[in-house]
């Protein structure tokens, strides 16, 4: 019985691996042709999440989009969103499994950006301007999002509309980010705040804290 179980298990795993390879979205298969651009060597792993608005999505060369990642442009499928792309992901990125990237106006993700699993990035949010109308029925508000090249977004991070992250930024796991942060920022918390930065003079330091003793002489 153990030999039979082992043989069946081997067949199941091999079969599922074959399904994953066949189900992946690449530039070589028909699903890949629907995108505004799906670069050379780019892959969207199987099974994918909800994907629509492909003509307005550009994904760079050798970018890996993990399993169950949702990529969407617009409120629902079938909309005409204009002549240009709305969601742009650069080359060499890795988008962690279960993440959601929801674009309505403009989301730019630079090159070599890596994310942990279950990251949420959107350029649209609900408003609560009118206290007499249910929030879900008020017209949402858009604001572009930009994530600089070389950045890392930890598991479960949320990037809200209007966020601009510079190059080589770190977003801590579970952070809820809104605002503008310069290159080489480390942001953490809810709401996220700048907890570390980098300058050639001071190296990595806490911008809100005292200058370390071994740096004061160089800074003076």
Automatic annotation (TrEMBL):
The lineage of its organism: Bacteria, Bacillati, Actinomycetota, Actinomycetes, Streptosporangiales. GO terms for cellular component: cytosol. The keyword Coiled coil does not apply. It comes from Nonomuraea phyllanthi. InterPro entries: Hexapep, Hexapeptide_acetyltransf, Trimer_LpxA-like_sf. Belongs to the transferase hexapeptide repeat family. PANTHER family: ACETYLTRANSFERASE C18B11.09C-RELATED (PTHR23416:SF23), SIALIC ACID SYNTHASE-RELATED (PTHR23416). Keywords: Acyltransferase, Transferase. It comes from the Bacteria. GO terms for molecular function: O-acyltransferase activity. This is Acyltransferase. Pfam families: Hexapep. Coiled coil: none annotated.
């Amino acid at each position: 019985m153990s030999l039979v179980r082992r043989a069946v298990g081997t067949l199941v795993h091999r079969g599922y691996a074959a399904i994953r390879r066949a189900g992946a979205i690449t530039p070589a298969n028909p699903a890949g042709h629907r995108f505004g651009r799906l670069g050379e060597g780019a892959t969207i792993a199987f099974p994918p999440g909800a994907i629509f608005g492909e003509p307005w999505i550009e994904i760079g060369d050798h970018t890996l989009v993990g399993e169950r990642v949702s990529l969407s442009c617009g409120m629902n499928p079938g909309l005409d969103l204009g002549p240009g792309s709305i969601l742009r992901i650069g080359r060499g990125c890795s988008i962690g499994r279960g993440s959601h990237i929801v674009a309505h106006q403009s989301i730019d993700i630079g090159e070599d950006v890596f994310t942990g699993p279950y990251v949420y990035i959107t350029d649209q949010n609900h408003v609560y301007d009118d206290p007499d109308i249910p929030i879900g029925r008020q017209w949402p508000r858009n604001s572009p999002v930009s994530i600089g090249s070389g950045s890392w977004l930890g598991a479960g991070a949320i990037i809200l509309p209007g966020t601009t992250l510079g190059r080589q930024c770190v977003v801590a796991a579970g952070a809820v980010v809104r605002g503008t942060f310069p290159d080489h920022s480390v942001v953490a918390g809810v709401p996220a705040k700048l907890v570390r930065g980098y300058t050639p003079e001071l190296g990595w330091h806490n911008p809100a804290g005292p200058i370390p003793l071994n740096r004061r002489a160089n800074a003076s």
